[in-house]
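Page 47, continued from p. 46.
Same chain as before, 809 aa.
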Amino acid sequence: MPSTFGATWSTIIVLTGALAVWAEDSLPEGAVMRLGAIRLRHQDDVTSLAWSPDGKTLASACNDRTIRFWDRATGEEARPCLRHPSPVLSVAWSPDGKILASADGDGSVRLWDIANGQAVVSWKRDRHTEFYSIAWSPDGKTLASAGDDRTIRLWDRAASKEIRSWPGNEHCVYSVAWSPDGKKLASAGVDDKVCLWDVATGKEITTCGHREGAMSVAWSPDGTTLVSTGADGKVVLWEADTGKEIRSWLAHGRRIRSAAWSPDGKMLATASDDREIGLWDPATGKPLLDLLGHPGDVRALAWSPDGKLLASGCIDARVRLWDPATGKLCNWGPGHQTRVRSVIWSPDGKKLASLGDQAVCCLWDLPTGKELHRWENVSFLAWSPDGKTVVTASPDKAIYQWDAVTGKQIASWPAGKTDIAALAWSPDGKSLCKWCWDGNLDEWDVQSGKPIRRSRGPTCDLYSYAWSRSPDGRTLASTRLDERIRLWDASGIRDIYCYVPNEAPRIRDTALALAWSLDGKTLAAIHASGTIRLLDPATTTEIGSWHSPSTYVIAWSHDSILLATTSSDHAITIWDATDRSNIGSLQFKCRANQIAFSPDGRFLASAHEDAAILVWNAPQAPVRRRELQDTELEQLWEDLGSQDAAKADRALWTLVSGPKQTVAFLRKHLRPAQRDPQLSKKVQRLIPDLDSEDFDLRQNATTALTGIGPVAEPTLSKILEGNLSLEARRRIEAVFEEFDKLRWTGMALQSWRALAVLERISAEDARAVLEDLAKGEPDARLTQEAQAAVERLTRKEKVLKGFRSRSDH
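Result:
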């Protein structure tokens, strides 16, 4: 990427408020932009939360050794962070709001003066002690602490010293809490026990517990009830005076780390390692709401003093604020508050759409990084080929069309009763396809919103892992747990072929992700074993494969030369598809759920679990050039027609490396498909004979249709949509099977691959050859493929012109 453009974007990142970068959270090396506001965010697991008594500020503790303060009104940092020498495990505001107490994993408790950010007191125990929990007495004079030394300690704020301690639970004490009257302490520990203590004497009043590890305790605001949670996923309510169980229920599938009462005592919140927060009616134990959107364990909870917000802390380094009345996330600034699932560039590369959890879609302007529009209730989206509109599918099974400039809704129509699995535009932008989980493929006319056809395809049940539609809209690729990768003819959903990577596998090696190259000539697949395969859809054979452990996402560059993959070690790897070599990698901090190259191939966008969207400089493929001799060109031309996909692929890239000689050679060997004005009439005349009572007549008609060749396929496809007898339909489908064989043999296969050579060369003389081929018989596959290649090159040139224009300014 030219350095001037990188500098321009770097300047924007510094100056644009929406893209402010904290000193501790600078962009990873190779990244040029982050989309969305960086708020309510740490660098590691969030361990504890506490609201100031006035409810204006939220303090959060983290394993990154910091305590941060967040402004409730804006979500921005309210004051400089405080630092510990080790992970901070617990924080608590004094009732008067003047002091913040904190405890860490190195045996120290500190009291901070909020006015000046200075530590006024620091108590230190053995360096191997970890203080898991601290809590202020209601009068603010005494601080209680507990940790892995199995001891409960009381610290005097005024005297700045420890005033009392006693043995607590038999093992680590995870949580301590004062009763509202300040006379009792409750503790929860690994020994499964919940203990009540007399503060004045340090004596145990009563003991109750869980079947498996008690994790947290909290008193109801009126002091009559104590709640405890455990590693058994249960919530238990106890009588505060007697320790008698009131009620219990299984609230989560994994351990519950935190429980918090609403200030009015009418709701109880629980946070679990199952990534969920539950809101419960404590009077009945019945669920009220589930708060979803955390990508990992939820470690901490805190209600605002007025009960209007619930704060949560997660191992994804994020603090989230929820509206407990609706269960929705509160939104501060642009961007997503939960993980981003996908990113899709607009065809001109000027905008980027992102889709996150909570069914939120954001539309971004590049390179300013500003959020242009926000649409809710979105489960899938797709750009129109001209980039003017966006269609979205909603969880309520409806499809909406939006103006990409104004963000306003243009149209909507119901999408049926079955959940939508994916959306895809036709290459000409006139129709839209919707694939459902039940295997139905529906196509609509975008202008009228009326259905065009319905086809039956691969079911997308629990055994389905991935699907992808070829760029020309003709072919669907799908995969299932049985390891098979299937190609389907999208016009009629006919099974074209099935690829099995191992004939007798010892373990399942399902393809987890599929991606078509932009020219549709190659299908890439990532398998569970870490194997990346390149498949040739023409010959149903493998071009090549290599191993990359823990890889799960794949994307092609728009010139079909580079492949990008992401792996569980938080890296994006760029591969050269011509020789499968690794040409570079990009490191990031949190799992990337999807990646996408910009239309000009210069940038790469990634969507992350921590709600971040990053834009990177994409490594560029080395330019390979050589002189090709006439005899070599003849051999390479022959190899282009080979049924050996690996040999044909080598020939393709060798021809690309010698553009001058290759274009001159292909100009002589490629001819536009000849027009036949009578084609449709010829086909129509033969159709009645397919249903004749005379067997020979039926057979002759079938043979004649096959002899016309694949150029007759569009006409036959339209005929299939009408009312035909079973016999006629069966014979047309048999003709299609013969077409599939003819399409990928001899000159047809050579020509198909030659188009890929010309498009990848993409010089003016190569484009001129493609334009000549695009003028042939409209129904011929060669003509249509050439037209599609010219359109892609045209779009690419527009994108590059726009890029150069932005660089100049």
